[in-house]
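Incident log, structure service

09:12 report received: a user says their structure output differs between two submissions of the same chain.
09:20 pulled the input from the user's history:
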Amino acid sequence: MNTLSLNNFSPLDPQSFLEESKLIVDFIADYYRNVEKYPVQSQVSSGYLVHHCPDSAPYSPEPLESILKEVSDSIIPGLTHLQSPNFFGYFQANASTTGFLGEMLCTGLNAIGFNWIASPAATELESIVMDWVGKCSCFHLHFFSQEVVAVSCMEVRVRPYFIV
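09:34 re-ran on a clean worker, output below:
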């Protein structure tokens, strides 16, 4: 039985991560630079992708350059390009450099914020940012995660935390 050599496989090698992430960022930047050249709605037929994929999963890792070429040749034609300036349908363009970099940072830190105990910083930051949105939208104080108590000219914030 063939086995994958551990000498060839390193799931998170910092140097290859640095080199390969540059390739990914360049790939995505090129995609956004050219997104308006793609038809907004995919022009492929149902089942098209099976003809572009091997019959079984690869036995060993493939070079990232090969994977990105396959994505460009086979995956991108099968996408609806919601970020295209030619798309006026269901969603407005929602990508920004700030949002994209924030997603990269969140993914890189593997911050899972589904409850406070899993990631206190992520959960609390989400509450704080949602309070900012509430203030910008003039929401009633009942919608805020923090109780706001006015004391003369300043606000004192009290946040009850309950861990059940």
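09:41 both user submissions now match this output. Likely a transient worker issue. Closing.
09:42 reviewer note: The longest helix spans residues 14-34. DSSP finds four helices and two strands in the chain.
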